[in-house]
Amino acid sequence: MLLNSYNFIFFFFILFLCYYLLGKTSKLQNLFLLLGSYIFYMTWSGEFLSLLLLSTLGTYFVGNKIKLSVGRRKVYWLRLGVFLILIQLLYFKYFNFFIENFNDFLKAFKFQSQIGLLNIFLPIGISFYSFRMLGYLLDINNNKLKEIPSLLDYSVFIAFFPCIIAGPIDKASPFLNNLKTKRNFSSQQFSDGLKQILWGLFKKLVIAENIATITEPLFGTYQTLNGSALFVGAILYFIQLYSDFSGYSDMAIGISKLLGIKIQTNFNYPLFAQNVADYWRRWHISLTSWLTEYVFTPLSIRFRDYDKYGLIMAIIINFLVVGFWHGAEWHYIMHGLVSGLMFIPLILKGKMNKKIKSSNSILPTISEVKNILVTFVMFSLLMVLFFVKDMNMAIGYYKGIFSSSFFHLPNFKLQKEIGILILFMIIIEWISRDKEYAIKELFNQRSIILRWGFYYILVFLVFLFYIAPKGFIYAQF
């Protein structure tokens, strides 16, 4: 059941009515949320609901033990909890990857391996809810979570339906604080949530889905295209991925607002990033902040005696985890490795933590244009490693881009309508780049006719360019 489907509208309408009309207390509201979340999950991956339930119960039990233990026993329970979470990730997501590479290693030395691959199906959302569980246990261990929540509240935190498929990956404490008191209906909150959902629908259905009609056949026939066409394809895919993933995040955040629950912002206009560090502060914020706290920071402390070289090691390991989190394929791992290596010039210059000041004017400065274009092109090229099927395709695609045919006109057609829509989205986001989402306060100071006219235009475009919705790209992770 996709967030942008008619089935979801019906499901959410029923849940919304029960939540506010029958949820007389916070406990009843949380119970409706949990039941709704499990029903939602069953429409995606019903056969793995038992795994989600067992993981929730197991980590809740271990969390209690960590809280009540001291010394070595506390360390023991933490390690057990981390092991239980990682072992299921390793089995479902990475087992065949290790076996396949082990077999290839043996073949390189003329040995025949008898280990066969297993027919394993990946439980939907396992990477997202596993990181929620890990963060919860680590926060208890580090005394960042002062009290143990009820099993009901913890279960809602793990299975919350707007986030379980593709995030954001919330921290336990701020999310659980939402659940302590009864949520009351607010028309302002309702309006805010609907606007963010509308912008998310526009990005997903109008921008991402229509770009996909170009990129999917382009990637399927990339050997026949010249370098400039492949370069344009990489740029289009970067915009498609952003529109698809940030569109989902906007919908998830907007739906949560309708329920009176605040979840973490996941994107901060990454298309306008001005260097590598700036980009990763804006892209998939919940994942990068999670890894910064639980992976990069401990590593940087451990390697601090090595000065800048220690920082480089910590960054590269951190981004290898980012790549491996996305999937058990070498092109994802290479994506993470290259992302880490891209930080080296900033680290050596001592500029990694230096935040860039952006101008508040409508038109960007010359310096901003240069920095944004360079960063945009770099990450468009990097995303080649994201959409390819394997490293052979990546090598072939890069060879095609960096060939003499790069200087020829692209030998494929780009519909003008899609180009205009992309430009429209970018302009709206640039104008509102200091806001939580692009249309949050757009035209608030203008007449109600202009404001509502703009919303009707967005709704019209959603229906005009509507294509039967496909799954979200990040749901596969």
Automatic annotation (TrEMBL):
It is a multi-pass membrane protein. Keywords: Acyltransferase, Cell membrane, Membrane, Transferase, Transmembrane, Transmembrane helix. One of its GO terms (molecular function) is acyltransferase activity. It is found in: Cell membrane. The keyword Transit peptide does not apply. Pfam families: MBOAT (PF03062). It comes from the Bacteria. InterPro entries: Ac/AlaTfrase_AlgI/DltB (IPR024194), AlgI (IPR028362), MB_O-acyltransferase (IPR051085), MBOAT_fam (IPR004299). The chain crosses the membrane at residues 39-63, 75-95, 115-138, 150-169, 225-242, 309-326, 332-348, 369-388, 414-432, 453-475. Belongs to the membrane-bound acyltransferase family. This is D-alanyl-lipoteichoic acid acyltransferase DltB, MBOAT superfamily. It comes from Chryseobacterium taihuense.
